[in-house]
Amino acid sequence: MKSEEAYRQWFLHLCGILGDPVEARKRLDFANANDIKLKDNGYGYKQAYKNSPSSADLDLLQRVLRRVWGATPTICDPTAGGGSIPYEATRYALPTIANDLNPVAAGVLRAGVEIPAQHGVGLTAEIREWGARLCERISERLVPYFRLEASDERVVAYIFVRTITCPRTGKQLPLAPNWWLRRGGKPVAARLVTERDGSVLDRPEFEIVEGKAIDFNPDEGTVARGDAVSPWDGLAVDGDYIKAEAQAGRMGSLLYGVAVRTGKGRGLRAPTDTDCGALVATEAELERLLPGWEADDVLPTEEIPDGNKTSELLRYGMLRWRDMFSPRQLLVHGIFVEEFRKLVPEVRAALGRDRGDAILTLLAFLQGKGVNWNARLSSWNVNAEGMRSVFDRHDFAFKWTYAEFDGTEMYPWCLEQIVDAYAGIANLLEPSDVDSLAVVSRNGRPAPTVLVGNGADLSEVNSGSVELVCIDPPYYDNVMYAELADFLYVWEKRTLKPVHPDLFGAELTDKQGEAVANSARFAEFGRRRKELANADYQAKMAAIFAECSRILRDDGVLTVMFTHKRAEAWDTLGTALMEAGFTIETSWPVNTEREHSLHQAKKNAAASTIMLVCRKRESAGDDGAHPYFEDLEGEVRRASRQALERFSAAGIEGVDLLLSTYGPALSVISSAWPVYSSEADESGRSRLLRPEEALDAAREEVVRLQRRRLVGAETALDPLSDFTLIAWDTFKAAEFPFDEARRLALAVGGLDVDELVRAKLVSKKSGTVELLPPPKRVRRGDDDALPGVRPGATSFSSAIDAVHTVMHVADADGLPAAKALMDRAGLARDPGFTACVQGLVNSIPRTKEKGEWVRAEAGTLDRLCTAFLPDIKIPPDPMADLEFGQEELDLSGA
């Protein structure tokens, strides 16, 4: 390379970054804020992962790596999950080892990384050919149970509501939170009918009502927060009764809407006798098949274990995994199992064991997609007018209504999804200048080695044989992988087991060995369950990191990706890393998702992954002279300050900027580990430092620097005002995690969240807090001792109370009244007041949606400053300097 800059540009090009993403994001934000539709994705090039490197770039990469490492480096991911890390390593022709404890994830690794690396895109035609045979056989058997009302009709979804028996009338009680079937400009709702022509019906009926004909409130359903109201007598039905009926197996379902597509377009209609007759025929056929299916182990009869995510299922009577499916859904999925098993010997006989099993592995994933989109937890999206899958969220949240696929069309749809995904994955593995269809042999590129087991025991990997361990560790308590994977595992065990017998030896997935902070595993310990879950996660991650140390070369690198916003998770992860003998050399925030400004202004979400670059800590001998945190605190603060300045200049902001200081803070203490606190533990000895104490110091430094930046000068404000300014600036949202609110409150002045609640600055929700706008802070009484908004006050205990009071008066009574208040209280001459105003102007998100302020506070401050506070500097519109030629924009969406 001619220069460092040339190397940088080559590296970005190698990664698929073919333009300036920072400027592109500005264009996208401008377009979103102004309702402009860009012709392309706004970047001017395809997403980076879709731009494969050329053969020449791959060759140069190999030469660079061999020069650095002495050989082509081996990459290992011990908790590979779905395989994005090993897949990318394979794209760059690097020897790769991918491991996961979860058999479902291991199956995805084989299907999505190993098989395309071995067989390439040439396998696509055979997947489609054999998949078409499988789907045709399934559809032929299902036709009698999905009868159409008209020859030109195709069913998009059957929509069901869960039911119980009314405890007083004995009639069927449908449990719907609302009756919408389509929202928006052309709304459609289902009207529940309980009487006709003056006579009370024996069972509920439904009418579909559209547009102006909706003469009732569809938002008024029959169930809310777990309790119901019976439409038969108008009286309440307790949630405990509903759960008891469900647990006794007496919760049913009722078809109340059908989404269809005809020659006239999409529509919604009420169920007909044809629809209901097909359901009756289904139950009869399932009854006929069940004895044989039970003997052949076709349906999943395993019990659902009680857990963090599965407890919701048990509360509503789903005790076995098959209970998550209606009779017709079970018929569809059971027929798939039967027909897939018949196909196995046919494919192997035609293609041989190796290629045949590759085809069968991909075809088995049709059912994984099918059960995800066709279960009692799949649902109808009234906004998008389409179906939602079970895993549209990482939980098993109970659905009062659910949607069902037309079984004759579902698996053909799944086949196209799988074929398209496989072809795309296989194509991207080839260099950009190679015709993937012309590739006959894949022997030139190493296929990854896929292992199935605990990341703490990689016995098949030799010590010191790996140059890079790259790990995106399990997300603390965020996702309970094994609990969720059982939903798929019980079906795959009945299809994939003959193809991959090593994956399906256990009844269910391994919950005990899983590295997650699952408090449900320690439920019998009561209040200590969370503490024990955290300790369990830390111990397991330490064991995984210790195994990473064993397989790494002495000069090898461990890269840890972490996205969790909670400092508690960082504390646990940092302890595990340092206990395993690693130092954190540096860290990098990498933007991984672009959040729409409207979303950011309402609810916080991290948009970056923090990449920690770690190496083995050099052992310097133990002379007993271990440092105390007080010796290192200045260095921690300096490292955090430097990171804040560096990454802020690079465009990182909000919660991601706060996270970017965590790595440098941990780096300081990891290099000197073990580090002790001057406080004694229970035995009277010096206590081992918790990493969160270093993170607290980092946050305090962030608060000081952020306040100075927001106000424009070194200024002292009261803790309540500090909290408000820094919270807006850090989270760019009114709502953010409770844990982060607690830690920020401590950092700004030793506050706790309850003090903030009493001050009416925030309200507490489940796991989050929300900053309150001025109108919600109004105090109606005369107790001046409590913080808040008081329009009649002439003095205020905190700057934020003064500013919020003036803002409230301006909105409620007009700008002249606000000016009178400012004059009466002498606020325009109060440096604390003006500093707080300047800080709020710079911290509250200045975003608009269709010309309206997303946060009304920003507009109020603008009016006040323009009218009465000329010295306050209002930030320029960040989009004002952007120029867009007509050729760059498509104004048709404006």
What's this entry about, in short?
The chain is α+β, with helices and mostly antiparallel strands and 894 residues long. Helix 8 crosses helix 10 and helix 19 (662-671) crosses helix 20 (691-711).
Topology at a glance:
Layout: H1 4-14, H2 21-33, E1 37-38, H3 55-69, E2 75-77, H4 84-91, E3 96-100, H5 103-119, H6 124-142, E4 154-165, E5 172-175, E6 180-182, E7 188-196, E8 199-210, E9 223-224, E10 227-229, E11 236-237, H7 239-247, E12 252-262, E13 265-269, H8 273-296, H9 311-315, H10 327-351, H11 353-373, E14 379-381, E15 386-388, E16 401-404, H12 407-428, E17 449-452, E18 466-471, H13 481-492, H14 529-551, E19 552-562, H15 567-579, E20 582-591, H16 597-602, E21 608-616, H17 629-649, H18 654-660, H19 662-671, E22 676-680, E23 686-688, H20 691-711, H21 719-731, E24 735-737, H22 738-749, H23 753-758, E25 762-764, E26 768-771, H24 799-813, H25 815-825, H26 831-843, E27 848-849, E28 852-853, H27 856-868, E29 889-890
Parallel strand pairs: 2-3, 2-18, 3-17, 18-19
Antiparallel strand pairs: 1-29, 4-5, 4-12, 4-16, 6-7, 7-8, 9-10, 10-11, 12-13, 14-15, 19-21, 20-21, 22-23, 24-26, 25-26, 27-28
Features:
894 residues; alpha+beta; seven-stranded mixed sheet; five-stranded antiparallel sheet; 27 helices; 29 strands; globular; disordered C terminus
